[in-house]
């Protein structure tokens, strides 16, 4: 069986490829078996592989999930939110969720959730900060597994609608280079009352940081580093702690 494994962020850098061809004996392999095989073949990336999740057909796969030839397979390192291609703009069918390499507009995203019967509208705006402690960031670079990232954003919207019925949500995330003070993500939420609005907005950003395959690379004056999930063991299939 022949598989092509998609790689991202630090894993792609370490193995110097974004698509890794892999020959596997037999007609299937489990997600855990795939990670074990990759660890044996690429021991220099063992630490990164061990904390990564396998995605099959743009869904996070449990360890015993079977992978067969023809499946779209990706190895997802801990997410956080590389270089983007020019003029990238992928949007969900309903227009509420977007991934783009173009500058983001708070007014544009917020307008998608305004409702005559909602008394609360909240827009969360994430920007690039210059100083983290004593370290100066020159800019950030974001990479994404775009089709899966968009599907995960839509899933966040559905989860919010289930937890806070009637809530409207829209999310746009930028990829590529994002300079200091520029916007990387906008989450707009509207509800009938402010309590639910605050709660839904907080849930959206925490879930995004936990499960959406978007990676952030900090570029400093004297180096760079990929930043992933930083709240203990990473499991994108669990609900976020809010």
Automatic annotation (TrEMBL):
SUPFAM superfamilies: MoaD/ThiS (SSF54285), Molybdopterin synthase subunit MoaE (SSF54690). CDD domains: MoaE, Ubl_MoaD. It comes from the Bacteria. Pfam families: MoaE (PF02391), ThiS (PF02597). This is Molybdopterin converting factor subunit 1. It comes from Paenibacillus cineris.
